[in-house]
Amino acid sequence: MTSTSASGLRTSRKSASFLLSVALWTFCLFGFPLFAAPQSDRVGQLSVRVRDRRTENQLEQVRVELIRFPDGTIGEQFTGSDGAVRFTGIGVGAYTVRATRQGYEAGEARVDFRKGDSTAQNVDIPLTALDPRGPATLGGSVSTQGLLIPDKARKELERGRLLLNEKKDPQGSIVAFRRAIATFPSYADAYFLLGTAQMQINQAIDAEASFHRAVAIDAHRTAPYYPLAMLLFSQRRFDDEHQLLLSAKSLDPNDWRWPFELARLNAQQGNWEPALAYALEASKHSGAPTRTHLMLADIYANSNRPRDAVAELELFVQLDPQSEYMERVHDVLPVLRQRAASSSPSPH
């Protein structure tokens, strides 16, 4: 009888860890959710315009992210010369739109798509320029490089952007991005978008080379760092990814993705102590998604701290009761509660 109970406990522990791991790690390479919204729930499109708050000029080369919690960034584009981007096929739900460009403070807006509402929404995001005398701004160097880009290269970049984001033709966009690079070989944005298109058609080796080239041209722009980190993670090149994420984190300390991914790669290797430290750091960022609590629960469960794991999952239930992972969370919670009841209090 004792043997059977021990075996059952081991099975329960494995089940809890497995279910939590599934809930935590099953995200696609681009950071998109594994379970996309049903086609019937894809209700609309969003047009975003980004401008300089003082001059009212439209801003190009602004990174615009469409963020849905707990899924994280589900879409990312760069504005063109008109300062605009458009996202289509958006599912029902609440979203944050985040706009970032070096030399400016980040700007955000929030939109909510519901069944029966208008299928098209417009968002205007004004960005405030940083003080050019401040040591942190790189706006001057970026503007200088922008003046060097020939019109022909810009037009090819815009054509490629249109093909990639609106026409959903990554193969065609690759041709345009290569033409932009042929005209201006130091075009970091073209290499970044080229890598993005190559990732979409599973050309991982080529995409990695493109992202590396974008970083080599302009190491201070962090846009290529995240997809490059995802490529390295998928290849289990954890040492390379670790160094890349540390570099990105030093450049952009306010982005929750860097500590989140550092926690993920450490957890994947069973390095629970640094994984916990990075996950806690990520959870303190105001923009961190609720799935950070799933990660913390998984780390606590694997670190023999079931009480803390239960607390994180209960918090997740409160914060995101409609999550697609809720069924799995409800499966795991009773097992962890049983472990917590029979365990010693967690050390503090």
What does this 3D model show about the protein?
With 348 residues, the chain is an alpha+beta fold. Helices cover 52% and strands 16% of the residues. It has 3 domains: 1-30 and 270-348; 38-127, Immunoglobulin-like (Sandwich); 148-253, Tetratricopeptide repeat domain (Serine Threonine Protein Phosphatase 5, Tetratricopeptide repeat). It has 13 helices and 7 strands. The strands form 2 sheets. The protein has a 4-stranded antiparallel β-sheet, with no helix packed on it. A hairpin with a 3-residue loop joins strand 2 (63-68) and strand 3 (72-78). The radius of gyration is 22 Å and the shape is globular. 41% of the residues are buried.
Q: Structural class, from helix and strand content?
A: alpha+beta
* Helix residue percentage: 40-55%
Order of helices and strands: HEEEEEEEHHHHHHHHHHHH
Number of distinct helices: 13
Q: Topology of this protein?
A:
Elements: H1 2-25, E1 42-52, E2 63-68, E3 72-78, E4 84-91, E5 93-100, E6 107-113, E7 120-127, H2 139-148, H3 151-165, H4 170-183, H5 188-200, H6 204-217, H7 225-234, H8 238-251, H9 257-268, H10 272-283, H11 291-302, H12 306-319, H13 326-341
Parallel strand pairs: 1-7
Antiparallel strand pairs: 1-4, 2-3, 2-5, 5-6
Helix pairs in contact: 1-11, 1-13, 3-4, 3-5, 4-5, 5-6, 6-7, 7-8, 8-9, 9-10, 10-11, 11-12, 12-13
Q: Can you tag this structure with a few keywords?
A:
348 residues, alpha+beta, Immunoglobulin-like, Serine Threonine Protein Phosphatase 5, Tetratricopeptide repeat, 4-stranded antiparallel β-sheet, 3-stranded mixed β-sheet, 13 helices, 52% helix
